[in-house]
From TrEMBL:
<dbReference type="InterPro" id="IPR010982">
    <property type="entry name" value="Lambda_DNA-bd_dom_sf"/>
</dbReference>
<dbReference type="GO" id="GO:0003677">
    <property type="term" value="F:DNA binding"/>
</dbReference>
<keyword id="KW-0238">DNA-binding</keyword>
<dbReference type="InterPro" id="IPR001387">
    <property type="entry name" value="Cro/C1-type_HTH"/>
</dbReference>
<feature type="domain" description="HTH cro/C1-type">
    <location>
        <begin position="7"/>
        <end position="61"/>
    </location>
</feature>
<dbReference type="Pfam" id="PF01381">
    <property type="entry name" value="HTH_3"/>
</dbReference>
<protein>
    <submittedName>
        <fullName>DNA-binding XRE family transcriptional regulator</fullName>
    </submittedName>
</protein>
Length: 205
């Protein structure tokens, strides 16, 4: 279920007209129409406002299926995965367009959403700032990263947990201890072999 469909569904569930929702969001009715028609995407602050207005989490707005209550157990790739609440917390940023299966979002809590201009054929990337307490999160996210025959099709996601920085590609998990320059150098060398330019390796620690 797309974000546009969720906005329309939740608006009707909360008995808002387009005009009333527009007033709440301080936008025009035409803007609401464009959101619901998938012509445009709400700005980050509007997504936050919608989550508060509809009393759902930001990640619920971005999931394939709306999950208002939130669950500790989710269905993913045909099996049940129990979130290990006592495991380390993974925190990072994911470009939504870099994954092949959006069900992976069920394993995350989305903290913030930003649209980044690309300067390329695709005008914007949707960047999700997330956390996850799933014990084997690196392995699960690695399964759904996009990859291709050329170096510019090798997507990765970076995140950290318990002093370890993770750089994860399709079926490849790289990591180093934050502050260990030699380990970081080796990870960067491997990334270069995969065609990643240096300006994309300036990830936060």
């Amino acid at each position: 279920m797309k974000l546009s469909e969720k906005i329309q569904y939740l608006r009707k569930e909360n008995s808002f007209t387009q005009e009333q929702l527009a007033e709440q969001c301080n936008v025009s009715r035409q803007a609401i129409t464009k959101w619901e028609s998938d012509i445009s995407i709400p700005e980050t602050e509007k997504i936050v406002l919608l989550s508060r207005l509809f009393k759902v989490s930001i990640d619920a707005l971005l999931r394939d299926e709306i999950d208002i209550d939130g669950v500790k157990e989710v269905s993913y790739c045909g099996k049940s995965l129990e979130i290990e609440l006592n495991s380390g917390l993974y925190e990072g940023a994911l470009i939504k367009e870099s994954i092949t299966d959006e069900n992976i979002l069920d394993l995350m809590e989305i903290k913030k959403v930003e649209l980044w201009k690309t300067g390329g054929k695709t005008k914007y990337w949707t960047v999700l700032f997330f956390s996850s307490k799933l014990k084997n999160f690196p392995e699960e996210i690695s399964k759904v990263m996009k990859s291709g025959d050329t170096s510019d099709e090798n997507w990765f996601v970076d995140f950290k947990s318990d002093g370890i920085k993770y750089i994860v590609f399709k079926n490849l998990i790289l990591n180093y201890r934050i502050g260990n320059q030699e380990e970081k150098r080796l990870v960067c060398e491997r990334c270069r072999e995969l065609g990643i330019p240096d300006n994309q390796m300036q990830w936060s620690e």
